[in-house]
Amino acid sequence: MREGVDDEAQKGGLHGMKNPRRTELNLSTCKGVLLDLGGTLIYGPSIREIFVKSLHSESLNLKIDESAKKGLSITFERIYDGLKVIKRKLLIEVSLYSILKMVLEERLKADAGLIERLRETLLSLYIETRSAHDDARLFLKKLKTLGYRIMIVSNALDHYMALGSLEKLKLINYVDDVLTSAQLGIRKPHPLIYIIAMEKLKTSNVVFIGDDVEADVLGPLRVGIPAIHVVRKGVRLKRSLSTLSDVLDMILT
């Protein structure tokens, strides 16, 4: 566990840090649910794995040898990891297209057409390989039955990574709106993301549910949004819940 994370989350309780707007989670007054996507509702292979598969895709038909493809994979990993540090520090998003452009232009004489074809191939493979957690559909269905408005709030390199995955998994009908870092150019836990989400959902009586401590718990708490941590894997807080079914039980009690 990262030093200080649990202490900060527990100052007002994991489900609500002390602030001028609210101090604790009160599900009876909540009208909206802000939900993380990757790791919370869905999962799948990493973007690095998908990039490698994309290079070998028949639909892309990239006419270079295996050595060149290996070089592209190494370059992608270096650029992606380097940008990850910058994005985490500045809380900005760098689009999938921009990343692919940097990779291809460093290794090949790439035009806009090739960059876009690689983007489309990667998106298709990414969406194709997403799966929903076993409790995701029932959770969303029950929330809608109870009258909650639901918004997906996700850090994503491309908006269609989120939208297409929800459509493919037939979860989109349970969702009122989808907000991604790709749309805004900023990433969770930037405070503006949560504020914009509440404005779009037309209610400030919301709760945030997700699996990432910084993006889905501490970020919302800092702007006065109660948070529920669903720990699929990784850092566990004192009041973390293990599944969305556990969250549902909390809501129903």
Tell me what you see in this structure.
There is one protein chain. By secondary structure, the protein is of the alpha/beta class. It has two domains: 5-43 and 131-252, 3-Layer(aba) Sandwich (Rossmann fold); 47-128. 49% of the residues lie in helices and 10% in strands. It has helices at 5-10, 47-55, 66-90, 96-107, 112-128, 136-145, 159-168, 181-184, 191-201, 213-222, 244-252, and strands at residues 32-35, 42-43, 131-132, 149-154, 177-180, 206-210, 227-229. The strands form two sheets. Strands 5-4-1-6-7 form a five-stranded parallel beta sheet, with helices on both faces. It has a two-stranded antiparallel ribbon with strand order 2-3. Helix 10 links the parallel strand 6 and strand 7. Residues 1-23 have low confidence and may be disordered.
Helix share bin: 40-55%
Provide the succession of SSEs: HEEHHHHEHEHEHHEHEH
Radius of gyration over C-alpha positions, nearest whole angstrom: 19 Å
The count of β-strands is 7
CA(first)-CA(last) distance: 30 Å
In total, the number of domains comes to 2
Strand order of the largest sheet: 5-4-1-6-7
Layout of secondary structure:
Layout lengths: L4 H6 L21 E4 L6 E2 L3 H9 L10 H25 L5 H12 L4 H17 L2 E2 L3 H10 L3 E6 L4 H10 L8 E4 H4 L6 H11 L4 E5 L2 H10 L4 E3 L14 H9 L1
Parallel strand pairs: 1-4, 1-6, 4-5, 6-7
Antiparallel strand pairs: 2-3
Helix pairs in contact: 2-3, 2-5, 3-4, 4-5, 5-7
